[in-house]
Amino acid sequence: QKEVEQDPGPLSVPEGAIVSLNCTYSNSAFQYFMWYRQYSRKGPELLMYTYSSGNKEDGRFTAQVDKSSKYISLFIRDSQPSDSATYLCAMTADYKLSFGAGTTVTVRA
Amino acid sequence: SAVISQKPSRDICQRGTSLTIQCQVDSQVTMMFWYRQQPGQSLTLIATANQGSEATYESGFVIDKFPISRPNLTFSTLTVSNMSPEDSSIYLCSVESGSEQYFGPGTRLTVT
């Protein structure tokens, strides 16, 4: 079993829809949770960072962490074609990041 | 945050040769990391490089194949030695700033 499980998709949604992305994990020691966005042929870009259970909002993005269920989510509201990318969840107990497989999202205009 | 640059951005190399990838950060950082991202896959940590000490390699990666230098707090190099087609991948440099990690743009390596 992988430490971090993420559905690779692909996920295709119409412009304006809510995008919902999820990851589950097995390591209870993970304390810090991140979402990265990676455009084609680019390095991952840090989108959201959180370390506590609950919700964190940043503009159109909401990160949700449920430590009791070992489950994290990223929601993108009012999705735009520019949101088309691969989204990777990542988590760590110290400094070593464990990544999910990444979910490829396409937002159709 | 940190701004990270990598050189080269891409290269095509013949099997049996070596390539050195450079990573430059715009601020001093203690910890730098090297990752590999194989086609269609997620990121795998190769090693952690701290200035003034030997790099720490993850399981499945060895110093003879991936020697790393960390001469100062803003620079590191990763060498991919004796390359084979299986080494074709994107190699990414990352740094820790605060408790967050930032990535460079990556080096796309193709081995023929």
Description:
The complex is a heterodimer of chains A (about 110) and B (about 110). Chain A has strands at about 5, 10-15, 20-25, 30-40, 45-50, 55-60, 60-65, 70-75, 85-90, 100, 105-109. Chain A is mostly beta strands and about 110 residues long. In chain A, strands 2, 4, 5, 9, 10 and 11 form a 6-stranded mixed sheet that branches. In chain A, a hairpin with a 4-residue loop joins strand 7 (about 60-65) and strand 8 (about 70-75). In chain B, the strands form 2 sheets. In chain B, strands 2, 4, 5, 6, 9, 10 and 11 form a 7-stranded mixed sheet that branches. With about 110 residues, chain B is mostly beta strands. Helices cover about 0% and strands about 55% of the residues of chain B. Chain B is globular and about 40 Å long. The relative contact order of chain B is 0.34. In chain B, a hairpin with a 2-residue loop joins strand 9 and strand 10 (about 100-105). The chains are: A mainly beta (about 110), B mainly beta (about 110). At the A-B interface, strand 4 and strand 5 of A face strand 5 and strand 10 of B.
